[in-house]
Design brief:
Layout (H helix, E strand, L loop, with lengths): L6 H10 L4 E5 L2 E5 L6 E6 L5 E3 L2 H6 L4 H14 L4 E3 L15 E8 L4 E7 L4 E4 L11 H12 L4 H9 L7 H19 L9 E11 L2 E10 L5 E7 L8 H11 L5 E3 L4 H10 L10 E3 L11 H17 L8 H13 L10 H4 L2 E3 L4 H9 L6 E4 L3
Parallel strand pairs: 5-14, 9-12, 12-13
Antiparallel strand pairs: 1-2, 2-3, 3-4, 6-7, 7-8, 8-15, 9-10, 10-11
């Protein structure tokens, strides 16, 4: 005789199966019927309780297996092990990898002192200024400039603020810092996979490149608000944005189960080419009916567009479509800026990537510069 499973056990089986739960919004989920008859709507009320349109909930008013499945799925997502990016510390010799190190005075630099080390095994000395070798200004000054700029200040206002800290630089120098370190961090962060949800959103906004109208297309995860990918195009409705969808798939290492966009035809064309499949069990859904009554909306994308728009007003125009500024804005959005809607966390933290240290810019730059240039001299014991 076959054992009868409880609702908890049935809900757990649903949560553990792939492609059974689709996240439509923060409070709205669709759960696949286990007998193959469509999907059930699971919605969270304002007081935190859940409702479902299945017969079990409707007639018995109990936590049905679909509600249990959604709750377990949320817990499983929160329990994902974090990928922690820590500040880099010197623990082994750069030459022989010995851990038998001693501090060996300071190397005096124009902006401050850098610790030197002596290896007791190979008797060589070295100092590490990871990511900031041969720079005329301190890591704190450089990263302060980046923080000010991506927080909304113009390049010239950044230089004025740095003068109060005793840092005398031109706005061209600040731009070179941004270009150098944005490229460095971007190559490093591209190798880390964010734990994003199965519901993504895409939208576009106009911006000026050398005074000409262009369009920035962006893909964002619904749950974590992680900015997954971006593309600059010449037109709004006819641009080929398949590279954007392909890049997002490569970053997340998966396809979305649900994609929310406006009604622009090129969104659906890219969706059909990159995400649609003939397999019914894995077939994603494209929601492109953005309604004014708020039942389906793209407010989260509009908030991110507002961030970019505020930054663009200060810039006035970009010099080129592949400007490091856009990549820097994306890094700032994902890894540096805390979001009120995420309870003060960054999208990266919610997506399982935690950047530690008092200065997250320095932590990212250090980890992106794992092969430091070494200033050394031989020491005779």
């Amino acid at each position: 005789m076959q054992a009868v499973l409880s609702r908890e056990e049935k809900g757990r089986l649903i949560a553990e199966k792939p492609n059974q739960i689709q996240r439509m919004d923060e409070r709205f989920y669709k759960v696949a019927s286990q007998n193959g008859h469509g999907m059930y709507d699971v919605v969270q009320r304002e007081n935190g309780s859940w409702i479902c349109n299945c017969l079990d909930f409707h007639y018995r008013e109990v936590r049905c297996k679909h509600i249990i499945a959604v709750e377990l799925s949320l817990k499983l997502h929160e329990a994902v092990k974090e990928n922690v990016i820590q500040p880099v510390t010197v623990t082994t010799c750069l030459f022989c990898r010995s851990e038998n190190l001693k501090k060996f005075g300071l190397r005096h630099n124009k902006y401050g002192d850098i610790q030197r080390f002596l290896c007791a095994d190979c008797h060589r000395t070295f100092s590490v200024n990871l990511g900031f070798e041969r720079m005329k200004h301190s890591p704190q000054g450089i990263t302060t400039a980046m923080q000010l700029y991506f927080s909304g200040e113009s390049l010239r206002n950044v230089t004025r603020s740095l003068r109060l800290l005793g840092v005398q630089v031109s706005h061209q120098t600040v731009y070179k810092w941004i270009a150098k370190y944005t490229s460095l961090m971007e190559k490093y962060l591209d190798k880390i996979t964010p734990n994003v949800s199965d519901t993504w959103r895409a939208d576009e906004l106009f911006l000026k490149v050398k005074g000409n109208m262009k369009y920035l297309y962006a893909m964002m995860d619904d749950q974590t608000r992680f900015w997954i990918a971006q593309e600059v195009a010449d037109t709004k409705y006819s641009a080929d944005i398949r590279p954007l969808f392909k890049q997002a798939k490569q970053v997340a290492h998966k396809n979305p189960r649900t994609l929310i966009t406006d009604g622009a035809p090129n969104f659906h064309e890219a969706f059909q080419d990159e995400y649609w499949t003939q397999k019914l069990a894995n077939r994603p859904e494209h929601i492109r009916d953005i309604r004014f009554d708020g039942t389906v909306h793209n407010n989260k994308m509009e908030r991110m567009n507002g961030e970019i728009r505020d930054r663009e007003r200060v810039m006035r125009t970009l010099e080129r479509g592949d400007s490091p500024i856009l990549s820097g804005i994306q890094i700032f959005h994902n890894y540096i800026r805390p979001h009120m809607a995420l309870k003060g966390r960054t999208p990266a933290e919610v997506a399982g990537i935690k950047v530690e240290g008092d200065n997250k810019w320095i932590t990212l730059i250090q980890n992106a510069s794992r092969q430091p240039k070494v200033y050394k001299r031989n020491h005779q014991p």
